[in-house]
Amino acid sequence: MDNTNQKKALVNTEIAVFLRGLIIGKVLTLIVIGGLLWWLLKPNLLSRNSVNSSSNQSSNTVSSTASTFQTVADVPTASFNYGGSTAWASIRQLVDSQIQSDRPELQLRYVDPVNGSPGSSSGIRMLLDGKLDFAQSSRPLTDEEQAIAKERGFTLEQRQVGMDGIAVVVNPSLNVPSLTVEQLQQIYLGKITNWNQVGGPNLPITPFSQQPKDADTVIFSNSDLKGQALGSNVQYVYSTTEAVRQLSKNPGGVYYASARSVVPQCSVKALPLGRTSGQLIPPYREPLVSPEQCPRQRNQLNTQAIKNGSYPIIANLFVIIKQNKGREQQIGDAYAKLLLTHQGQKAIQQAGFVAVR
After folding, report:
1. DSSP result, 62-89
2. In this predicted model, what pLDDT tens digit does every residue of 111-153 receive, in sequence order?
3. What are the tens digits of pLDDT across the range 259-299?
4. Which residues contact 195 (CB under 8 A, 6 or more apart)?
5. Residues 256, 278, 288, 89: is their CA dihedral positive or negative?
6. pTM for this model (two decimals)
7. What is the C-alpha separation between 17 and 23, in angstroms, rounded?
8. Which of 85, 109, 111 is CA-nearest to residue 261?
Protein backbone atom coordinates (compact mmCIF):
# COMPACT_ATOMS: atom_id res chain seq x y z
CA MET A 1 0.00 0.00 0.00
CA ASP A 2 2.76 2.42 0.94
CA ASN A 3 4.59 1.49 -2.25
CA THR A 4 1.52 2.35 -4.33
CA ASN A 5 1.11 5.73 -2.62
CA GLN A 6 4.74 6.56 -3.19
CA LYS A 7 4.37 5.78 -6.90
CA LYS A 8 1.31 8.04 -7.13
CA ALA A 9 3.10 10.86 -5.35
CA LEU A 10 6.09 10.52 -7.66
CA VAL A 11 3.84 10.60 -10.76
CA ASN A 12 1.99 13.66 -9.47
CA THR A 13 5.29 15.41 -8.80
CA GLU A 14 6.56 14.66 -12.33
CA ILE A 15 3.29 15.89 -13.85
CA ALA A 16 3.51 19.09 -11.83
CA VAL A 17 7.11 19.64 -12.92
CA PHE A 18 6.15 18.97 -16.55
CA LEU A 19 3.23 21.38 -16.45
CA ARG A 20 5.33 24.05 -14.76
CA GLY A 21 8.02 23.64 -17.40
CA LEU A 22 5.43 23.78 -20.16
CA ILE A 23 3.92 26.96 -18.80
CA ILE A 24 7.31 28.60 -18.31
CA GLY A 25 8.32 27.53 -21.83
CA LYS A 26 5.22 29.10 -23.33
CA VAL A 27 5.72 32.30 -21.36
CA LEU A 28 9.34 32.49 -22.52
CA THR A 29 8.23 31.77 -26.08
CA LEU A 30 5.68 34.60 -25.93
CA ILE A 31 8.31 36.94 -24.50
CA VAL A 32 10.75 36.03 -27.28
CA ILE A 33 8.08 36.42 -29.97
CA GLY A 34 6.93 39.72 -28.47
CA GLY A 35 10.48 41.00 -28.29
CA LEU A 36 11.10 39.93 -31.86
CA LEU A 37 7.96 41.71 -33.06
CA TRP A 38 8.88 44.88 -31.11
CA TRP A 39 12.36 44.83 -32.62
CA LEU A 40 10.96 44.44 -36.15
CA LEU A 41 8.36 47.18 -35.72
CA LYS A 42 10.59 49.66 -33.85
CA PRO A 43 12.13 51.37 -36.97
CA ASN A 44 8.69 51.99 -38.47
CA LEU A 45 7.33 53.38 -35.22
CA LEU A 46 10.37 55.61 -34.78
CA SER A 47 10.18 56.69 -38.39
CA ARG A 48 6.49 57.47 -38.06
CA ASN A 49 7.07 59.44 -34.89
CA SER A 50 9.97 61.23 -36.54
CA VAL A 51 7.82 62.08 -39.57
CA ASN A 52 5.00 63.31 -37.37
CA SER A 53 7.42 65.36 -35.30
CA SER A 54 9.07 66.75 -38.41
CA SER A 55 5.68 67.47 -39.96
CA ASN A 56 4.49 69.28 -36.85
CA GLN A 57 7.72 71.25 -36.66
CA SER A 58 7.53 72.11 -40.36
CA SER A 59 3.89 73.12 -39.98
CA ASN A 60 4.72 75.38 -37.06
CA THR A 61 7.61 76.94 -39.00
CA VAL A 62 5.43 77.60 -42.05
CA SER A 63 2.62 79.07 -39.99
CA SER A 64 4.96 81.39 -38.14
CA THR A 65 7.17 82.63 -40.98
CA ALA A 66 5.54 82.11 -44.39
CA SER A 67 2.53 84.40 -44.81
CA THR A 68 0.65 84.27 -48.09
CA PHE A 69 -2.00 86.28 -49.91
CA GLN A 70 -4.56 83.86 -48.43
CA THR A 71 -3.55 84.65 -44.84
CA VAL A 72 -4.30 88.39 -45.04
CA ALA A 73 -7.53 89.24 -43.24
CA ASP A 74 -9.97 92.09 -43.95
CA VAL A 75 -9.44 92.16 -47.72
CA PRO A 76 -12.51 94.01 -49.06
CA THR A 77 -14.78 92.45 -51.63
CA ALA A 78 -15.23 95.05 -54.36
CA SER A 79 -13.65 96.69 -57.40
CA PHE A 80 -11.12 99.46 -56.77
CA ASN A 81 -9.25 102.00 -58.91
CA TYR A 82 -5.52 102.51 -58.52
CA GLY A 83 -2.62 103.97 -60.47
CA GLY A 84 0.58 105.96 -60.26
CA SER A 85 4.23 105.16 -60.86
CA THR A 86 5.19 103.67 -64.22
CA ALA A 87 8.10 102.01 -62.40
CA TRP A 88 5.50 99.68 -60.87
CA ALA A 89 4.52 98.26 -64.27
CA SER A 90 6.14 94.87 -63.65
CA ILE A 91 4.51 94.67 -60.20
CA ARG A 92 1.11 95.33 -61.73
CA GLN A 93 1.79 92.65 -64.33
CA LEU A 94 3.35 89.94 -62.13
CA VAL A 95 2.30 90.59 -58.54
CA ASP A 96 -1.17 92.11 -58.84
CA SER A 97 -2.24 89.33 -61.20
CA GLN A 98 -1.21 86.77 -58.54
CA ILE A 99 -3.14 88.67 -55.88
CA GLN A 100 -6.31 88.69 -57.95
CA SER A 101 -5.89 84.99 -58.76
CA ASP A 102 -5.57 84.08 -55.08
CA ARG A 103 -8.13 86.63 -53.86
CA PRO A 104 -10.76 86.78 -56.62
CA GLU A 105 -13.08 88.77 -54.37
CA LEU A 106 -10.72 91.73 -54.85
CA GLN A 107 -10.75 93.43 -58.26
CA LEU A 108 -8.11 96.05 -59.08
CA ARG A 109 -8.47 98.40 -62.05
CA TYR A 110 -5.51 100.51 -63.23
CA VAL A 111 -6.50 104.04 -64.25
CA ASP A 112 -4.38 106.41 -66.38
CA PRO A 113 -4.60 110.15 -65.79
CA VAL A 114 -6.90 112.05 -68.12
CA ASN A 115 -4.48 114.97 -68.33
CA GLY A 116 -0.71 114.53 -68.18
CA SER A 117 1.40 111.39 -68.17
CA PRO A 118 1.23 108.49 -65.69
CA GLY A 119 3.67 108.65 -62.80
CA SER A 120 4.03 108.92 -59.04
CA SER A 121 3.05 112.60 -58.95
CA SER A 122 -0.01 112.23 -61.16
CA GLY A 123 -1.13 109.15 -59.21
CA ILE A 124 -0.92 110.97 -55.87
CA ARG A 125 -2.74 113.94 -57.38
CA MET A 126 -5.54 111.63 -58.58
CA LEU A 127 -5.73 110.06 -55.09
CA LEU A 128 -6.08 113.54 -53.55
CA ASP A 129 -8.83 114.36 -56.06
CA GLY A 130 -10.79 111.19 -55.24
CA LYS A 131 -10.17 109.54 -58.62
CA LEU A 132 -8.15 106.66 -57.15
CA ASP A 133 -8.65 104.50 -54.07
CA PHE A 134 -4.89 104.17 -53.48
CA ALA A 135 -1.72 105.05 -55.38
CA GLN A 136 1.63 103.45 -56.17
CA SER A 137 4.65 105.72 -55.85
CA SER A 138 8.39 105.42 -56.39
CA ARG A 139 9.12 108.56 -54.39
CA PRO A 140 8.13 109.82 -50.92
CA LEU A 141 5.24 112.20 -50.34
CA THR A 142 5.98 115.92 -50.44
CA ASP A 143 5.04 118.47 -47.77
CA GLU A 144 2.73 120.11 -50.31
CA GLU A 145 0.83 116.86 -50.93
CA GLN A 146 0.40 116.32 -47.19
CA ALA A 147 -0.83 119.89 -46.80
CA ILE A 148 -3.43 119.44 -49.57
CA ALA A 149 -4.67 116.23 -47.90
CA LYS A 150 -5.00 118.01 -44.55
CA GLU A 151 -7.02 120.81 -46.17
CA ARG A 152 -9.39 118.16 -47.53
CA GLY A 153 -9.95 116.50 -44.17
CA PHE A 154 -7.68 113.46 -44.27
CA THR A 155 -4.02 112.48 -44.21
CA LEU A 156 -1.84 110.38 -46.52
CA GLU A 157 0.29 107.48 -45.33
CA GLN A 158 3.23 106.09 -47.32
CA ARG A 159 3.98 102.43 -46.62
CA GLN A 160 7.22 101.07 -48.10
CA VAL A 161 6.99 97.68 -49.82
CA GLY A 162 10.14 97.56 -51.97
CA MET A 163 13.27 99.32 -53.23
CA ASP A 164 14.61 100.39 -56.61
CA GLY A 165 17.43 102.59 -57.85
CA ILE A 166 17.33 105.57 -60.21
CA ALA A 167 19.52 104.85 -63.23
CA VAL A 168 20.96 107.29 -65.74
CA VAL A 169 20.89 106.05 -69.34
CA VAL A 170 22.40 107.40 -72.57
CA ASN A 171 22.76 106.40 -76.19
CA PRO A 172 25.00 103.27 -76.41
CA SER A 173 27.39 105.12 -78.76
CA LEU A 174 28.12 107.89 -76.24
CA ASN A 175 31.62 107.56 -74.79
CA VAL A 176 31.06 108.85 -71.24
CA PRO A 177 32.45 106.70 -68.42
CA SER A 178 30.21 107.83 -65.55
CA LEU A 179 28.51 110.73 -63.77
CA THR A 180 28.34 112.01 -60.23
CA VAL A 181 24.98 112.95 -58.70
CA GLU A 182 26.00 116.61 -58.73
CA GLN A 183 26.90 116.47 -62.45
CA LEU A 184 23.54 114.85 -63.20
CA GLN A 185 21.71 117.60 -61.32
CA GLN A 186 23.72 120.32 -63.08
CA ILE A 187 22.83 118.78 -66.46
CA TYR A 188 19.12 118.98 -65.68
CA LEU A 189 19.41 122.52 -64.34
CA GLY A 190 20.99 123.58 -67.66
CA LYS A 191 24.39 124.42 -66.15
CA ILE A 192 26.27 121.58 -67.88
CA THR A 193 25.26 121.56 -71.54
CA ASN A 194 28.04 119.67 -73.38
CA TRP A 195 29.38 116.17 -72.74
CA ASN A 196 32.97 117.47 -72.93
CA GLN A 197 32.33 119.16 -69.54
CA VAL A 198 32.09 115.72 -67.91
CA GLY A 199 34.82 113.82 -69.76
CA GLY A 200 32.89 112.99 -72.91
CA PRO A 201 32.99 114.11 -76.56
CA ASN A 202 32.26 117.61 -77.84
CA LEU A 203 28.54 116.99 -78.21
CA PRO A 204 25.55 118.99 -76.93
CA ILE A 205 23.55 117.29 -74.13
CA THR A 206 19.86 116.70 -74.72
CA PRO A 207 18.25 115.90 -71.35
CA PHE A 208 14.89 114.11 -71.45
CA SER A 209 12.46 114.17 -68.54
CA GLN A 210 8.84 113.77 -67.58
CA GLN A 211 7.03 116.97 -66.68
CA PRO A 212 7.86 117.79 -63.03
CA LYS A 213 4.15 117.83 -62.13
CA ASP A 214 3.82 114.22 -63.40
CA ALA A 215 7.30 112.99 -62.49
CA ASP A 216 7.68 109.34 -61.62
CA THR A 217 11.08 109.71 -59.95
CA VAL A 218 13.03 112.68 -58.66
CA ILE A 219 16.75 113.48 -58.43
CA PHE A 220 16.50 116.58 -56.25
CA SER A 221 14.46 115.24 -53.30
CA ASN A 222 17.38 115.22 -50.85
CA SER A 223 19.13 118.28 -52.23
CA ASP A 224 19.34 122.02 -51.69
CA LEU A 225 18.33 122.25 -55.35
CA LYS A 226 14.85 120.88 -54.59
CA GLY A 227 12.15 122.94 -56.27
CA GLN A 228 14.42 124.62 -58.81
CA ALA A 229 13.21 124.86 -62.40
CA LEU A 230 14.76 122.51 -64.96
CA GLY A 231 16.93 123.91 -67.74
CA SER A 232 15.42 125.34 -70.92
CA ASN A 233 17.12 122.61 -72.98
CA VAL A 234 15.19 119.80 -71.25
CA GLN A 235 12.85 117.95 -73.61
CA TYR A 236 9.74 116.51 -71.97
CA VAL A 237 8.42 113.03 -72.70
CA TYR A 238 5.19 111.25 -71.87
CA SER A 239 6.78 108.08 -70.49
CA THR A 240 9.98 106.07 -70.04
CA THR A 241 9.09 104.09 -73.16
CA GLU A 242 9.08 107.30 -75.21
CA ALA A 243 12.34 108.48 -73.60
CA VAL A 244 14.13 105.21 -74.45
CA ARG A 245 12.92 105.52 -78.04
CA GLN A 246 14.21 109.09 -78.25
CA LEU A 247 17.60 108.17 -76.72
CA SER A 248 18.17 105.43 -79.30
CA LYS A 249 17.95 108.15 -82.00
CA ASN A 250 19.81 110.95 -80.17
CA PRO A 251 23.59 110.45 -79.64
CA GLY A 252 23.72 113.22 -76.99
CA GLY A 253 20.57 112.29 -75.09
CA VAL A 254 20.33 111.42 -71.39
CA TYR A 255 17.44 110.28 -69.19
CA TYR A 256 16.93 109.13 -65.61
CA ALA A 257 14.30 106.65 -64.48
CA SER A 258 13.59 103.54 -62.45
CA ALA A 259 16.64 101.27 -62.73
CA ARG A 260 14.34 98.24 -62.97
CA SER A 261 12.69 99.83 -66.03
CA VAL A 262 15.77 100.93 -68.00
CA VAL A 263 18.76 98.76 -67.00
CA PRO A 264 17.57 95.70 -69.02
CA GLN A 265 16.81 97.76 -72.15
CA CYS A 266 18.86 96.90 -75.25
CA SER A 267 18.73 100.31 -76.94
CA VAL A 268 20.25 102.41 -74.12
CA LYS A 269 23.33 102.24 -71.90
CA ALA A 270 23.24 102.75 -68.12
CA LEU A 271 26.08 104.77 -66.56
CA PRO A 272 27.84 104.15 -63.23
CA LEU A 273 26.77 106.83 -60.78
CA GLY A 274 28.51 108.14 -57.68
CA ARG A 275 28.16 110.55 -54.78
CA THR A 276 31.70 111.54 -55.73
CA SER A 277 33.96 110.64 -58.67
CA GLY A 278 35.73 108.13 -56.40
CA GLN A 279 32.55 106.27 -55.39
CA LEU A 280 31.12 105.14 -58.72
CA ILE A 281 28.59 102.31 -58.57
CA PRO A 282 26.95 100.73 -61.64
CA PRO A 283 23.17 100.19 -61.46
CA TYR A 284 23.73 96.87 -63.27
CA ARG A 285 25.54 93.70 -62.24
CA GLU A 286 28.99 93.66 -63.76
CA PRO A 287 30.22 92.91 -66.34
CA LEU A 288 28.15 95.17 -68.58
CA VAL A 289 26.24 93.35 -71.31
CA SER A 290 26.87 95.06 -74.68
CA PRO A 291 24.02 95.97 -77.08
CA GLU A 292 25.31 93.28 -79.46
CA GLN A 293 24.67 90.60 -76.81
CA CYS A 294 21.15 91.90 -76.10
CA PRO A 295 18.43 90.55 -76.06
CA ARG A 296 20.07 87.09 -75.77
CA GLN A 297 21.51 88.48 -72.55
CA ARG A 298 20.23 91.47 -70.66
CA ASN A 299 21.77 93.61 -67.94
CA GLN A 300 20.43 92.77 -64.49
CA LEU A 301 19.71 95.16 -61.63
CA ASN A 302 22.52 95.60 -59.07
CA THR A 303 20.23 94.61 -56.20
CA GLN A 304 23.08 94.26 -53.70
CA ALA A 305 24.21 97.88 -54.11
CA ILE A 306 20.62 99.09 -53.80
CA LYS A 307 19.94 96.98 -50.72
CA ASN A 308 23.12 97.97 -48.86
CA GLY A 309 22.72 101.66 -49.74
CA SER A 310 26.00 102.05 -51.63
CA TYR A 311 24.15 103.03 -54.82
CA PRO A 312 23.75 106.84 -54.61
CA ILE A 313 20.11 107.39 -55.63
CA ILE A 314 17.58 104.98 -54.18
CA ALA A 315 13.90 105.01 -55.07
CA ASN A 316 11.73 103.47 -52.37
CA LEU A 317 8.44 101.97 -53.48
CA PHE A 318 5.44 103.15 -51.47
CA VAL A 319 1.76 102.32 -51.34
CA ILE A 320 0.06 105.67 -50.72
CA ILE A 321 -2.97 105.19 -48.46
CA LYS A 322 -5.73 107.72 -47.85
CA GLN A 323 -6.34 107.80 -44.08
CA ASN A 324 -10.03 108.70 -44.07
CA LYS A 325 -11.56 105.74 -42.18
CA GLY A 326 -13.41 104.80 -45.36
CA ARG A 327 -13.24 102.22 -48.13
CA GLU A 328 -10.11 103.88 -49.57
CA GLN A 329 -8.21 103.35 -46.32
CA GLN A 330 -9.42 99.76 -46.09
CA ILE A 331 -8.24 98.79 -49.58
CA GLY A 332 -4.96 100.73 -49.34
CA ASP A 333 -4.14 99.04 -46.05
CA ALA A 334 -5.09 95.58 -47.38
CA TYR A 335 -3.05 96.03 -50.58
CA ALA A 336 0.05 97.07 -48.62
CA LYS A 337 -0.37 94.09 -46.29
CA LEU A 338 -0.65 91.73 -49.28
CA LEU A 339 2.62 93.06 -50.74
CA LEU A 340 4.37 92.73 -47.38
CA THR A 341 3.54 89.04 -46.96
CA HIS A 342 6.26 86.47 -47.58
CA GLN A 343 4.56 85.62 -50.87
CA GLY A 344 4.23 89.30 -51.83
CA GLN A 345 7.87 90.12 -51.11
CA LYS A 346 9.03 87.10 -53.10
CA ALA A 347 6.84 88.22 -56.02
CA ILE A 348 8.28 91.76 -55.81
CA GLN A 349 11.77 90.25 -56.16
CA GLN A 350 10.58 88.22 -59.14
CA ALA A 351 9.35 91.50 -60.65
CA GLY A 352 12.93 92.77 -60.48
CA PHE A 353 12.92 94.90 -57.33
CA VAL A 354 14.54 94.61 -53.90
CA ALA A 355 12.34 93.33 -51.08
CA VAL A 356 12.21 95.13 -47.73
CA ARG A 357 11.48 92.01 -45.65
Report:
1. HHHH---GGG------EEEEEEE-GGGH
2. 999 888 899 999 999 999 999 999 999 999 999 999 999 999 9
3. 999 999 999 999 999 999 999 999 999 999 988 899 999 99
4. 174, 176, 201, 202, 203, 204, 205, 252
5. negative
6. 0.76
7. 10
8. 85
